[in-house]
Amino acid sequence: MDIPACTDPKTGEKYPATNAIINESLGRGGAGCTLATWEKLTGVYIDHWMTIDFAGVVSMADAVGGVEVCVNQNVWDRPLPAVPGGSGLKMTAGRHKVEGEQALQWLRTRHAWGSDLLRARGAQNMSNSIPDA
């Protein structure tokens, strides 16, 4: 996607416009660069936004006593011979309440879902399960 020229507000470093995956926009000037990228793509001005990192999502999950997730098959996200990493998440098929370290593992699971698109779907499912305050 086309990422516009951005300046990192913390360091003052200037980044030229580029074409890359959207994830790169955050490292090229923080959330402001990501917003500028989405605004350029959609033509819609974004006047309210917030950023929540992994620790923030885990804190929210803990604050509500855990978040229910559901998997339709056993999951074990571990390093594989050709694919390093893995979150360490291990759970059986069915419904589970995740919190603390397991909530973080859920969000960081990459290999077990099979694709980044499915990883994003898992994160959305978790955030949709957090009850309204």
Straight-line N-to-C gap: 35 Å
> Which shape, going by the Cα principal axes?
globular
Oligomer: single chain
Poorly predicted runs of 5 or more residues: none
Query: Biggest sheet, open or closed, and with what strands and sense?
Result: 2 strands, antiparallel
Mean pLDDT: 87
Order of helices and strands: EEEEHHHEEEEHH
Structural class: alpha+beta
Biggest β-sheet: strands ordered side by side in the sheet: 1-4
SS summary, helix count: 5
Percentage of residues in helical conformation: 25-40%
Strand-residue proportion: 15-25%
> How many whole angstroms does the radius of gyration measure?
17 Å
Number of strands: 8
In short:
By secondary structure, this protein is α+β, with helices and mostly antiparallel strands.
Describe this structure in words.
The protein is of the alpha+beta class and 133 residues long. It contains 5 helices and 8 strands. The protein has helices spanning 23-26, 31-42, 54-63, 100-108, 116-129; strands at 2-3, 6-7, 14-15, 18-19, 67-71, 75-76, 90-91, 94-98. A hairpin with a 6-residue loop joins β2 (6-7) and β3. The radius of gyration is 17 Å and the shape is globular. The N and C termini lie far apart (35 Å).
